[in-house]
Structures are given as structure tokens and as C-alpha cells.
Amino acid sequence: MLTTLRIRNFAIIDAVELPLAPRLNVLSGETGAGKSIIVGALGLLIGERASADLVRPGADRAVVEGTFEVGDAPELRAQLDERGIDLEDDVLVLKREVPASAGGRARAWINGTAVTAAVLSDIGRALVNVHGQHEAQALLDVEAQRRILDAFAGAQGQAAAVARAHAALVAARAAVASLIARRDAAQKRADYLQHVAREITDAKLVEGEEQKLEDEARRLTHAEELRALAGELSGALEGEDEALLGRLGHLQKPLASLQRIDPTVARLQELYDAAYYALEELAREVAAYGESVEHDPGRLADVERRRDLIFRVLKKYGGTVAAVLETGREARAELALLDSAALDLRELEDAVTTAEAALREAATALSKTRQKAASRLGKEVEAQFPGLGLADGRFHVALTARSEIGAAGAEDVEFTVALNVGHDARALSRVASGGELARVMLALKTILAGVDRVPTLIFDEVDAGIGGKVGQQVGDAMRRVAAHHQVFAITHLPQIAARAHHHIRVMKGAKDGVTTADIQVLDGDARVEEIARMLGGDADSATSRAHAREQLAAGAASAVASAAPRGGDTSARSRRRG
């Protein structure tokens, strides 16, 4: 529910704050006072096109901000979660800012999170539905009409079953197409795949073999040099008397004498022993290494051939052993597909047949439900027309069979109307008169009030071309819709204004030499005065005021007759304020 609408520097508006209430809110005022501008600002807030022309002259930017109370709205909450927008205390604040400069970009926020105009529109449409003379609203969309019919029929579960069955069929057909494509590709590549698989298998690659071969090749290539270096080391360690171990052995005698004189240097003996044993171990290792190095040209040739083979295979099939082995596995799998494709294809085609049957069954059940509901919805909406000044109107829910069952079922759904005698029925989206369209919307909303999940409905000039008793009936219809939604109506009719739960007047004046609009919440005598003005008499005369009080009394009486509990989408705080 929209609780507050703040508008600053928008068209002729300097700064206004509209406090709104649950149920039926009415906005009245003289022609040109700025009522439709307020609706335009609300449209901007929910994602409509922004333009620098909207900014009040002399201001650098226009700002529109709306505060909404969000109750039990799981779909809306899911949309917010998907976009990473936090919802705190069930309050949602939408904000739109339009710069005065033609090159500037409009910006938008939801609960302080910057969003695109598209996201603002998605969330805004879940919060507010605006029905005006030139608006293309959700109810005019055939997909929305289909969802409305299904909701009216209680067929959401059947519709979901059809969507699931269609998705399963699409997946089954895709699996068949994929297998055929892979089979055909494998057939074209069979010779190549066999060559790849054979070459990789014959290579007998082992992870880490490249490094081992490189190390071995280096030793074989430098075998003579390595043996010479090992011999040189071995001689230096334990060769003639000048060898390191021999010279180190001569140190044992003075070290022993040193310890006899000063036993505290026993640690030196330990270090000496460790050094001597380490050099002995080094000598043995060097000698063994030298003996192990062989000059073997034949082995070197074998190693180089193996290295060349591995290099060629890696270069052709992946660059690493793991990649080459995976390439070989994939090639063998494609070849295996040629052997199993026929059987697999039969199984997948059987799955398609089963999915087609399941889709037909689900779509047939949905079609039967829709057909019954379409006739009933048409009659119930049509029954609302006389009371809305559309006595000759006819409403029909057209179901047109599709050439192929889709995710939405076996038929397209479209609302059609004929509002004048002798005229053919046309799609609801092609109704020419904005006032007539608004009243058709109102008739639909009256029937569908308990189904539609958008909490706030805006009706702009729903009273165009009507008056008298029809105006009273339109007001009564709005009150019935307001039992399930917050309704915000722009009206010139006192019969409708008198039936409001919350009445706001728009007034036009001047501020600093510039025309501006302001608002006033009406109650008591102020409301009587406004109703008297709307009746066309002298608002200060006793007769006009008496007539105005009669209208308000009639509105109160209609409230008792149409009273109904609020829907579950309004918070306790909102109900207390109403």
C-alpha cells in the first residue's frame, strides 16, 4: 500500500507530500489544478519514461519518492531478493530523480539501492497499477489477461502443470536433437576420431614422464663430463695423502690432547666426528654416482625419440598429458556413441512421445477449466456495465486455439468488448475512449478484486462522460474494489468523491511568481465545501452545503452496504490509520 507520495520540482509542483490511506482515496480539484500531474509523477516513480521537460522551471532536478507498506507479498519479496534489495520492517521506498539538463541521466533507487529504470518498472508494476486515458496497463496485455482468467478459474495449479509438462517436452526434444547432432558429427569425424584415439593410446603417456626423460637425456648427453667431475670429487675426498679425509684424520690427535687438558671442549669432538662421517658419506655417494653414469648412445637415442613423440602428441592434442588423455577419452566416447546411438535415440524418442501425451492431457484439462471460466467471467463483468454507464456494453473472453500447445496452454486468451450497439467486439487494448476503458477496467477490478495481487490501483478520469446515478454506481464499484485494494481515484464527480475514505484536494496558486500546485487533506466542513464546489453551486451557500452533506450521507450509506474486510496485503498499522 502506498502510504506517502512526495513530489518536488515536478512540472508545476514545487513541493507536495500526499499522505494516503487504505481503501478508497480521492483526488479532486479545479480543472488544471495539477491532479493528473500527480498521477504523472506516480507514473514516473514506477518506471515510466523520464524527460528533462518534467522538471519545474528554475529547478535543477525533479524528485519523486513513494513509501509503500508491503505485507504478505511473496512474489514481490522474491523479486527483491533476486535483485539484492533489502526489505526492512515491511517498508519499501522507491525514488526517482530527473535532472533538468537534457544530457543528464535519470536515476532511481529502491530502499537506497541504485537500480535501473527497468528494475524500477518491474517492482513498481507489482506495487501500483495505473489506469488512465493513455496508459498501456497490465490488464491490456494478453499474457496478463490469461493469468487473470486462470486466477479467476482457480486454474493456477493446472497452468503450472502445463508449463512443467511443456518444459519437459522441450527438454526431451532437445535431448533428441542433441543426440542426433552428436551422432551425425561423430559419423563425419569417425576416421579422424579413430586416428586420434589410436595415436593417444599408442603413446602410452604417463604423468611426469617428460621431466624424467629430460633429466635422463641431460645425464646421457654429459656422461663423460659427469664421470670426470665425480672422479675429481672422489679423489679430492679420499685419494692420496693430500685428500680431504686423510688430512682431516690427522686432526684427531691434537684434538684428543686438547680434551685431556680441557675436558670442557668435548663439544669440539662431537663436531669433528660429525664432519668426518659426513665427508665419508659424501665420498661414498660421489663414488657410487660416478659408477652409475654410463656413456650409452643407444639409450640416448631412445630417450630422444620418446621425447619427440611426447612433444608431438602434446602439441596436437592439448599441451599437457592430462589434456591429451581427456581428448582421447572424448574421442573414444564419440566413437562409442555410434554404436549406442540407435538404442539411445529410440529411448529418447519414446520419452518425447510420453512428454507429448502428458502435455496434451494437462492442456486439455486446463482448456476445459478455461472454457467454463471464460463464459462465467464474461457474464459477471458484463453485468457490471449498466451500473457503470455502459448499458449497451458486451464483454467476452475469447479463447483462440493455437497451432501447437505452448507453455501457456492450447489456446490464446484475449478480452474483447463492444461498448456500443452495432459495433463489433474489439480487443480490450483497442478501446478508443479513455473514460470507457477506465470503466471497463473498473468492472474487471470489481470482479477480480480478490484475485489481483497488485495492492494499489490508480484510476485517472474514470468518470469521463458520466454523471448522476451512474456516477454513484461508479463510486460504489470503487468502494467494492477498495475492500481488497488501496484505490486512488482522480475525479470531477461529487458522487465519487463523497464515497471516499480519504479525500485530498489539489489547488493551484503562485509561489515567487511561478504557478504551483499544493494539496489539502479534507475532513469535516472543508470536505463539505469541496463537495459543494464539485456539485456546481455556490460552495458558501446553505443549499449547496446541504446538498453536499446529502451526498456525503449517501456515500456513508453505500459504505455500510459495501463494507468488507481488507485483504491480507495490508498491515495492521494501515488498518488502524484507515
Q: What is the topology?
A:
Blueprint lengths: L1 E9 L2 E7 L4 E6 L5 H11 L15 E9 L4 H9 L8 E9 L7 E4 L2 E3 L1 H11 E4 L10 H12 L2 H33 L1 H14 L5 H13 L1 H16 L5 H6 L2 H10 L4 H27 L4 H21 L3 H64 L9 E13 L2 E10 L7 E2 L6 H15 L7 E5 L7 H14 L4 E5 L3 H4 L4 E10 L2 E9 L1 H11 L7 H21 L9 H6 L1
Parallel strand pairs: 3-13, 3-14, 8-12, 12-13
Antiparallel strand pairs: 1-2, 1-4, 4-5, 5-6, 6-7, 9-10, 10-11, 14-15
Task: Give a summary of the structure in a few sentences.
This protein has helices at residues 35-45, 74-82, 117-127, 142-153, 156-188, 190-203, 209-221, 223-238, 244-249, 252-261, 266-292, 297-317, 321-384, 434-448, 468-481, 494-497, 524-534, 542-562, 572-577; strands spanning 2-10, 13-19, 24-29, 61-69, 91-99, 107-110, 113-115, 128-131, 394-406, 409-418, 426-427, 456-460, 486-490, 502-511, 514-522. The chain has 578 residues and is an alpha/beta fold.
